[in-house]
Amino acid sequence: MSSAAPRVTGQDHLWSVSEHLEDILATVRPLDPIELQLLDAQGCVLVEDVTVPVSLPPFDNSSMDGYAVRVADVAGASEEYPAVLTVVGDVAAGQAELLHVGPGQTARIMTGAPLPPGAEAVVPVEWTDGGLGAGPVSAMRARSTSPEGASGQVHVHRPAQARAHVRAKGSDVKAGDLALSAGTVLGPPQIGLLAAIGRGTVRVRPRPRVVVLSTGSELVQPDGELESGQIYDSNSYALCAAARDAGAMSYRVGAVADDAETLRATIEDQLIRSDIVVTTGGVSVGAYDVVKEALSSVGDEDEAGGGIEFRKLAMQPGKPQGFGTIGPDHTPLLALPGNPVSSYVSFELFVRPAIRTLMGVADVHRPTTRATLRTDKALTSPAGRRQFLRGRYADGEVTPVGGAGSHLIAALAHADALIVVPESVESVEPGTEVEVVLLG
Amino acid sequence: MSSAAPRVTGQDHLWSVSEHLEDILATVRPLDPIELQLLDAQGCVLVEDVTVPVSLPPFDNSSMDGYAVRVADVAGASEEYPAVLTVVGDVAAGQAELLHVGPGQTARIMTGAPLPPGAEAVVPVEWTDGGLGAGPVSAMRARSTSPEGASGQVHVHRPAQARAHVRAKGSDVKAGDLALSAGTVLGPPQIGLLAAIGRGTVRVRPRPRVVVLSTGSELVQPDGELESGQIYDSNSYALCAAARDAGAMSYRVGAVADDAETLRATIEDQLIRSDIVVTTGGVSVGAYDVVKEALSSVGDEDEAGGGIEFRKLAMQPGKPQGFGTIGPDHTPLLALPGNPVSSYVSFELFVRPAIRTLMGVADVHRPTTRATLRTDKALTSPAGRRQFLRGRYADGEVTPVGGAGSHLIAALAHADALIVVPESVESVEPGTEVEVVLLG
């Protein structure tokens, strides 16, 4: 670290939002995959093509509670002239030993039970007298209270075509089929499919572990007492929640006072459980900007271009930003500005895509849309800066919430969108179409 | 429980999807609120109006790293004719004891630090020589390496209006303002706001605890070996994941064999950790439908209308359904059919809204939209049943995925929408506009 105060020169490169983001996305790599229990893999990205080891269903089975029959035996059956069949027993779901259904015979069969040999179709119980000899029934009697239902005779009132109410082996998926391809995000139905084909574990990229650390001697925990000149730490809470919202696990380290040695030691301590480190505050041009002070000198000596670089971005809020890698594992670190709105907007624009990249998700960005600006007076924006204003979006229109001030956290809590004002635009009239980032 | 097989009569009321849902929503009540640590309350619904106890910012403070000045002292200042001020010291963020800035004096001030008495405005460090006497600088030197920056003289190159770069006390929110109203779902920015106003804990409705239990003697854990007639249990996995996705905590009890006593005992055991119980399978008209058998006789004697009622719904898939309350706390229980697609669709239509109701969320339903049906041949649907077909939705169009079979779990895993075919419709031509439930 140089002790000379930097001069204003042409070398003070102003980074565009896109350049900074590109640098981050070119550096951050998807996490190495691990084998996880199925339910632990929810929300994670599959890294393997999963093929079907066993056809689904694994055997021909009944789609109804009813009677397994031979087609010829029920041909022409009606309520007036029922086919009368001898019940040879029950076929319950999960039953391994199957009865044979011969001519004039039937087996009572439950939904999901294997079609017994000899049978060609299933007639639903509602098409029969359930063995009671007194007209159509709407259900079977429970086996536990009426074991006689598995024997005797049954009257069948309607014919059945071959394979009626039979789910064929492999009619869902066949052994060797591709069940899910690499890159699939595992939601509930995908987890259901993996279970159905017998996968108890699955190879995915794990949830990234995000350590969030706010800095500033003025910061007090929310349940503490404010002394003169102090404020409550909100960034570490908001960003921990935002990291989880992005799909990560997050650890809130809380506020570290403005002391470079303490900060450096704290970050080094945390690397063991960090896939990415996020700090807030201490990155600007002040004399107490400890993040900058502590991390500008932290080299990442094993890797060319390692270390944390501090930059000015052509954006508002969020001008000062730090990014790089740190420690033996080249852990990515994003040093965000300390104003609550600046840190939150920076998180959305830079940390969220980094987290999504670690997860291996294909589309790392928030959805954007076009909307008509609803406001009484024109919005103003500094020339040469991409401005992100807070807004509420509904039905193709967006209304600004609060002003441009990066300390307006109450307004942020009532926004659900960011209104983007491009670098070249200094004023946006009411009714203009603008780009909007939907915060979800 | 009656051992008579039910007869087909006019009393066999066929419930509509809406009637069943209304019954559920009229029975399920939001959970009692509890006080949670802020980050534990993420995704939960606030039950209190939260007012601001202390204005934000709590004091006038600097929005820049710079110098706190008296306006008259820098009037007319320029780079050629700078105002030369005596630096009386630093004002860092969080500093309690403040210097007084007298005429001809200035204090070096950091972003977020309180405006010291006597000072009226802040000039950014970039408008000064940073005390070095050699033209404009872009940043301060770090205090730790250059303590002399807090003394000596500074040249200021531009004038400042009163209150320039000063954030006024209360300019974000004022003490007594409503910060967030009851009913707000706590996302990252809301959690940030609560922290900022000093709330370490917050009163919310907790996440519902959902116990998921699949039944069927044919079910094997996904990492087990399939014997003849067996299939893998997928429902308990898919529904546990779906419950989490809805905002709940879920406990997978796994598959219970078709034995009514075991099932009843298992459910009673689980009630201690259940805000809602979901079972799959065993609710239809077969002789081994143990859920129906076990729960039809479980009264909820303390409450009129308690107990579990089994119904036929005018829908496909998902015709057989059970619903009621159970145990001393009148815990809601939904007994879903066992086919994977039936149980998942039933979860989306009935369990998810129940979970969202327990959470106290205002809008409990998935979003729906209208879409043009893209398909080669007309869809058919049974008269008098509301059919829910799986589809993929994009850009106002929906394409069916797989057929109507309720065992087609692979197709479900590639769907992101349900196509709704109303009770009165038996055929839907390609190009028709249909209602679509977006599964998100």
From TrEMBL, chains A, B:
A GO molecular-function term, please? metal ion binding
EC number(s) per entry: 2.10.1.1
Q: What InterPro entries has UniProt attached to this entry?
A: MoaB/Mog-like_dom_sf, MoaB/Mog_dom, MoeA-like, MoeA_C_domain_IV, MoeA_C_domain_IV_sf, MoeA_linker/N, MoeA_linker/N_sf
Which keywords does this Swiss-Prot/TrEMBL entry list?
A: Magnesium, Metal-binding, Molybdenum, Molybdenum cofactor biosynthesis, Transferase
Q: Which residues form the MoaB/Mog domain?
A: 211-357
Question: Is Metal-binding tagged as a keyword?
Answer: yes
Please state the pathway this protein functions in, per its UniProt record.
Cofactor biosynthesis; molybdopterin biosynthesis
Among SMART domains, the record links this protein to: MoCF_biosynth
Quote the cellular component terms of the Gene Ontology held in the record.
Answer: cytosol
Which GO terms of type biological process are on file? Answer: Mo-molybdopterin cofactor biosynthetic process
- Ranges where the record places region Disordered: 138-161
Top-rank taxon of the source lineage equals Bacteria
From the UniProt record, list the reaction(s) this protein catalyses.
adenylyl-molybdopterin + molybdate = Mo-molybdopterin + AMP + H(+)
Keyword Magnesium assigned: yes
CC cofactor: Mg(2+)
Which is a Pfam family this sequence falls into? MoCF_biosynth
The record's family statement is:
Belongs to the MoeA family.
- What this chain does, per the record? Catalyzes the insertion of molybdate into adenylated molybdopterin with the concomitant release of AMP.
| Protein name, UniProt field | Molybdopterin molybdenumtransferase
- Organism from which the protein derives: Streptomyces aurantiacus
